[in-house]
Design brief:
set domain protein methyltransferase, domain 1, 2 domains, three-stranded antiparallel beta sheet, globular
Length: 234
């Protein structure tokens, strides 16, 4: 338990340094543990009259409507995150390492904007020296979705509609992964010699799918072509 907490502290410190070095500004907020539920963004400014105090998180694993929450609880701008830190189709195409190949895939109609961002995020999550590593290390690594269940956990659902639905969806996802996703992600990874031997697993694809489902469920404002820090901290 102590080791896990120490690892979390190291990841958080690395993330904060990454934000600062890339121009982000936590003007009137801080990041700290959120009651055993991961990390939350807390206001350090005086609360507006009638609002919750600084002990209430502006953003936590249970509240990801970032702009709405921050404007409600504190006056002014709580934080500034440069657009350069958002993973968008344009940002992917501008990447010096994989941008040219991604542009070719997009122009040839092999991928669309949505798939482009997915492939990039999956590749960067497995790339040892990724620019995005401090941020990606902060994202959830496990989920409560039945898609993430082990075979033993899934067996406990036998006889239920959830069990059948999960198997059907996993089969469909496995097919998509085998036929298209795996090869494309490994192609982007292997552009980098340091990742030339990295094999992309089905679990990597499941991670992205469930992560995206979580984002869609938590905010109606989320853009499927945009991944931006602070929308989903673990």
């Amino acid at each position: 338990m102590a080791t896990a907490a120490a690892d979390d502290d190291v990841k958080l410190e690395s993330f904060l340094q990454w934000l600062q070095s890339n121009g982000a500004d936590l003007r009137s907020c801080t990041i700290r543990a959120c009651g055993g539920k991961g990390l939350g963004v807390f206001s350090t400014a005086a609360p507006e009259p009638g609002s919750n105090d600084g002990n209430a998180p502006l953003l936590s694993p249970e509240s990801t409507r970032l702009i709405w929450t921050m404007r409600r609880r504190c006056a002014g701008v709580a934080m500034v995150v440069p657009l350069d830190l958002a993973i968008t189709p344009m940002r992917v195409l501008q990447d010096p390492l994989v941008g040219p190949r991604c542009r070719a895939l997009l122009e040839d109609g092999v991928v669309d904007d949505r798939l482009l961002v997915m492939l990039f995020l999956m590749a960067e999550r497995r790339r040892p020296g990724s620019l995005w590593k401090p941020y990606l290390d902060m994202l959830p690594s496990t989920f409560g979705s039945s898609l993430w269940f082990t075979e033993e956990e899934l067996a406990e659902l036998e006889g239920t509609t959830l069990h059948r639905a999960t198997l059907i969806q996993r089969k469909s996802l496995q097919s998509s992964f085998d036929e298209k996703v795996k090869g494309l992600v490994e192609e982007l990874l292997h552009v980098d010699e340091s990742a030339s031997s990295v094999e992309v697993l089905f679990e990597d694809f499941l991670w992205y799918v469930i992560f995206l489902f979580a984002l869609k469920a938590e905010t109606t404002y989320y853009n499927l072509h945009l991944i931006i820090p602070f929308y989903h901290l673990d």
